[in-house]
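$ run holo --ligand "zinc ion" --emit tokens
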Amino acid sequence: MRLPKLPRPERYDLSLHVDPAKPRFHGELAVALELGADTRALELHAVELEVDASEVEDASGVVKVARVRANPERETVSFVLERPLVPGKAELRVRYSGPLRTDLRGLYLARSGKRRYAATQLEAADARRFFPCFDEPEFKARFRLRVTTPARNRAVSNGALQRSERRGARVTHHFAETPPLSTYLVALVVGELEASRPVRCGSTPIRVWCVPGKKKLAGFALRCAVESLRRLEAYFGLPYPYGKLDLIAVPDFEFGAMENAGAVTFRETLLLVDEKTVSLAEKKRVAEVIAHELAHMWYGDLVTMAWWDDLWLNEAFATWMAFKVVDDWKPEWDMWLDFESHRAPAFALDALENTHPIYVAVESPSEATENFDVITYEKGASVVRMLESWLGPAVFRAGVRRYVRRHREANARAADLWRALEESAKRPITAVVEPWLERPGFPLVAARRVDRGGQAFLVAEQERFFANPKVDAGARLETRPIPLVVRVRRGRGKDPLVRALAEQSSTEIPLGPSGEVRWAYLNAGEASFVRALHDAPLLRALGQEFARLAPVERTGLLGHQWAGARAGTARLADWLELVARLGAEREPEVLGAASGGLSWLVDQLLPPLGERGAAVFRAWLAGVFAPEFAALGWQAERDESEKRRQQRAVLLGLLGGLAEQREALEGAAARIGPYLKSRAKLEANLAGPLVELAARGGDADLFDAYLRAMRGAATPQERTRFELALGSFRAAPLVERALALALTDEIPTQDVVPLLVRMLGNPAARERTWEFVRERWKDLSGRVSPGLAGRLVAALPALQKPLYKRQVAAFFAAHPLPTAARALRQALERFDLDAELRERALPELRAYLHNLV
Ligand SMILES: [Zn+2]
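-- output --
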């Protein structure tokens, strides 16, 4: 499928006519090429572009194009020439046009109220939907853009705006030529935009762009950008490479954000913030996403993966770097604690038989798109972090600097990074890191203590972890080098950390004199990407001194025990015992770590448990969390910490959403009216759970009130909050209304899949939602964009019943989603895993509840 190495582009000169009100755009393109021998045709990527005229000029003059041939299966067009070209340099000139797309890729239409915008999203392989090009990351070239558009429109692109020429009702914006870039990093946004005043980081001017009226929400993003850029320049030891930095909020956008060089595009919710009403979680997410995109300016844009199989080189590193940068800026936010919840889905996915290695061979663009998942991002970032912790931060940074300097403005592969790191570490690392990248899955490490000759040891035994207990022992046999960090609890003083590289199936780690060692925790700081299961005596000791573990380890331990219970390698009761200890927990992230497992129990085990059993379970849950919520109350103290505020919000979600505690639900019902009248009436972190809980019991009047609140929302976060909560109403006619809205422009394309996912999570809506998806697929499929299709498919196991599993398999066999092929296999596997677990865990839960009363 790939293009030959030659000819290769050196420079694209692109003159565009874009009017977002018109269905098509037009372009004139000149590509400067370096040729190989015997060039009789030029093949460039192009999809749904119409070529009106073309010619080539080489050293001996103009050559006519005899015919233009489309090769749809290769997503290319060939310009077949009247005579072979003279080797050396040449220029291809093309006049073409294309549709302003509606599927959030290529150059597409984004609406905001009555206003229309044209915006690009070109990763992975959609530059070919914007202009004919050599659309592979290795073909780096310089770009010079000019855009002619109605005079009211502004335009933002990678290069700085050099001048704008007005001619009648139109204006032409001229942008400076870029440094060498891969095609997927080209950007253009056209429409009525306003810009913040520039702030500077060193000599770099930074601006936020948005639809008119929202400029006042730019302050936080600008601060994040300055703080991130400064730290990134210091880390890489290289100045920001792209002159100016524009951050653009696009009103309809598929991904979270996109690292176009010098012109980063975002969902509005991830850039525009009102600091008075934003929740801590939303603020952290904005900071993390901005830092992630800016890390890409060096790692991804300046040095680019040679091909999509090394996508993780970009994404794993940027994900890791973002947490590092924000943690350094705001240590009180404990970003690495948040990282645990970010990577929890990666652990879950990677425990399936249908997972994939971080490094994956990629043939086609849709395979590349499939790899934008939690394995590439969060597992990848975990491996980077493990490597940094193992080599030490200074050595790691020296290697990264060496790598970036060596490959700047060019492309690289994983082996290039290992070489640079090995040079700075002065020891081999490839053998340690490669199994983590090239093999799927991750280890289960079982820990027990042995005492010998007055010394205590931790015995760590590894095998591959599978969520499915029926996977046979042979498939589990696997060893890989695991850099382990063990926390040792001594009788007095600080708890020392012991490091070891576990390379064999069983490793003995010395802990110290038997008399002094009380217990050990296998994965201190959750430094390694493993599931750690401690044997009964160790687990009992850990439970008794639960608060002695670092917050990130408490989160980790909850995750390990739940994963073990799911996989049949640990007792459900042990996990429930840990949950019971959370009544006293002050860390919102640790509290939140229980909610995944608890949601599963509520959703899948309470119905078969029966009404009485469910009531006992809910009363138990309320008993754990209610005292602390009651102590906190709905009102925040004036000088209360951000964490304490978030703790209140997490507790409300647990109590109202899972325990269905009457006080919490009635409290929400009583407060939604005043909140709809005035946002200032409520502690900002409570808005999310309040809007969600009130919707559950809400009637048609409340549904209408949410619609009005959505339309008139003052911030993007508020808009999304009310919009998605439309999917949380339970009354049947309101479920219908929410579904019908998904087919209208009232819900932007970017939010259609998130709304359907919300509705699949709603027990009163999920079966009807699935029926709707099947019945209305013809209308709906155009609103399920390729990059989000996998998320819709991943939510379907919520349907639970085997009947639905068969329907899901049959439906997507008949209506294939190429970018969700792997997600479909994973979803089908999850249907089976859940069915097995329901059967196995029901008696365990029943016995646990029986012992309570
Ligand atoms: Zn990224």
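-- notes --
The chain has a mean pLDDT of 97.
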